[in-house]
Structures are given as structure tokens and as C-alpha cells.
Design a protein that fits this description.
This protein is an all-alpha fold. The chain has helices spanning about 10-15, 40-50, 55-70, 80-110, 135-165, 175-200, 205-210, 230-235, 250-265, 285-295, 305-310, 320-335, and strands spanning about 275, 280-285. Helix 4 packs antiparallel against helix 5 and helix 4 runs parallel beside helix 9.
Amino acid sequence: MTDVPPSASATAGESRVWNHHPNLPIPTSPVFAWPPRPGEALRWLAGYWLAISMTALEFFLAWAVWTWLQPAPGTMATFGLGWIGQIWLRNLVLMTLVAGGLHIWLYTFSAQGKALNFDARALARDNGTYSFRDQVLDNMFWTLASGVTVWTLFEVLYFWATANGWAPGLTFARNPVWFVLWFPLIPIWSSLHFYWIHRALHWPPLYRIAHALHHRNINIGPWTGISTHPVEHLLYFSSVAIHFVVASHPAHFLFHIYIQALNPAASHSGFDGLLVRDRKRVELGDFFHQLHHRNFECNYGTAEMPWDRWFGSLHNGTQAATQRTRERKRRMHGS
């Protein structure tokens, strides 16, 4: 199944909606294409891992934290405020550096102006929709107070379980093939889990209880990424529960949870990339997900994996896709 190329007028019509967007229609991953396209799949994966991207940075961050910033395993065998507080503070600093750093550079300093900015509108202020009547303060509160806390909860439970021998371990020496394969498989699992959790969160009762808080943000910024309700945080971070039953190394777990926690700050940044000397040096925002915030009932997953294409919820950035999404919303909600 492939996307039908839109007419030039359809693409041009959608272009008027945005300050910037990538080439349309948005491509989806060829990794699971049929018939297989191995050359394209390898180029896609190489771009995903070898480019300067959040995924690559999180890979190195996981190893650095495990090597130099991890509490002693013996300490973590019993719950204690000391090591739990250390992990919570570490996560608070990481989130503040990533989301806060991107916000300061892109919005406070406006270091690249509106270049590569998908939606040129300012983030909301003096708006009663948000806690504190301010979108950024609202997003910071839910990210730090709930997001970092739930993230830390899963991390503490995992390291406590491994310290007591209750979570299956893995070393490179014992199984080098599985050890290496885990790293490219983690984003695939994360994407699949996110797709189905996200679809569930759009079920009206669960949407009203939890996910509506995140969808206050139609225009998005770095602090929007995991600015969600605690119920949603529990569901979202449950992706890492797989490490409690499938053998892995702590570096795998840290890499996985950093994808869950830190990737959204970049994917919600509102900018296609980070410019240095007028060249895009770092991949940032995810236009695929930006379309979800604008149109709601589409693009529940990620562009890296074709779940939305397979399950009929794809918006590829064209006017035709916008019309299909509107019709789908009317069918779903009876309006």
C-alpha cells in the first residue's frame, strides 16, 4: 500500500496553512514496505541512527549515565530517599536542559527567527485554557511535576528489581547478537506501544479524563512533549515495562526511557530542525505529529513506522488527507 501523490494544487493549498513544512506528502518508513525495498530501508535506518538526532544523542546519553551517574547497585536493592532522590534530580536536570534549552534557543532568544518553524503563531499567554493562564508555564508544570515523577517511578522500580535479581539481565558477552539488536528494536517497540496507547487515549471517556490536557496545545513547543495528565504518563511510560520480562541491560532501559521522556521535547519543538550558520544541523520537530495536534484524529503513531498507514489513520500533509481526516472525525464523533 502506498500513498497516492497529490495534485500540485492540493499540495499548494495545504502549504498556505503552514509557515514551513517538509516536502509533501510526508514519506513513511520503508522498513516494512511490501514488496521489500532493502536499499531504501537501510538508507532510512542509517539516517535515523547516524544523523545528529535525538535518538543518536539518547543512545550516547544512556551509556554516559550508566557509566558515570548511576547509584551503586547495592544501594538500590532497598528503597531509600538518597538514591531515589538522585535519580529524580538527574531526570529533572535532563528534562530542563533538553526542553528548557530548546525553548530558550527557539522561543526566548528566537535564535533562528521563524526559519523552519511549522506554525508561526506565538505560544499562548493570558489564556484561561491553561494552568496559570500561560501555555509554557502550564506545560512546564505538568512535565516536571507529573512527567518527571512518573518517569522516575518506572526507573526506580526497574533498578530496584535488577538489584534484587527480579528482572532478567543481559550482557554483551553472554549474547552479543541480542544485545546489539535490542537498540534498533527499542524504537520500533516504543512506536508500536505509543500508537495503541495513543489511540486508546482518544477513546472519549479516557480523552476527557486524561488526554484532553495534552490537546490544549494546538500549537506546540518543547515543553509540550510530555505535558500530560498523570494517568497518561502512567500509560505512556509503561512502554518500558517490557524490560521487566525480556532480558536487557540497564543501558537498554535508559535508552528506552530517554526516548520516551526526551524525544517528545524535540518532536514537539515546533521547528523542523536546529539551524547553525544557516544550515540544518540537528533534526528536531516532527511535522507528522504536528498534524495530529492540528487535526486530532490522525497520525497517532510516528512517521518512523507505518502503523497509521496500515490502520487507516494516516495524514500525509496534503489537503486531500485533511479532508479524509475531517470526514473520519465526523464518523467517529457523529458531528
